[in-house]
Amino acid sequence: MTGIIVTGHGSYATGITSGLKLLAGEPEHYRAVDFLPEDSTESLEEKLRDAIKQLAECDKLLILADLVGGSPFNVSLRLKLSGEWNMEVIGGCNLPVVLESYMSRIMEDDVEKLATSSAQVGREQLVHYVQQQSDDDDDYEE
Predict the structure, then answer these.
(1) Which end of the chain has less neighbouring CB within 10 Å, N or C?
(2) Does some domain include residue 102?
(3) Name one GO molecular function term (predicted).
């Protein structure tokens, strides 16, 4: 089983977990780790290591962080590069990435493939709506 850890600045992790719960129910093999204003990068690392320990029954881990280059992402990446765990890290996560990762991990046993497909879903879910101007208000572009 792939364990999932979501982390990010402020209450990002608990906030996005709230959305996940609404869509998928109470998550299992899943932890949310917030990086609060009073936290240092050292305390964030401790919190992430604790979450990893809580997911000890999982043979693979996927960490989803809010911002590429931010402290939660950087600390997660350091943990991955330590080689202690079979782990992948995605930065720039949104709710579609979290939902896709959570729902697809049952069917996809390879954590690297899971990370790749989840990141693709996140990219595909970004849409910029631009209203088209026309002379006729009844004309809509689809």
Answers:
(1) C
(2) yes
(3) kinase activity
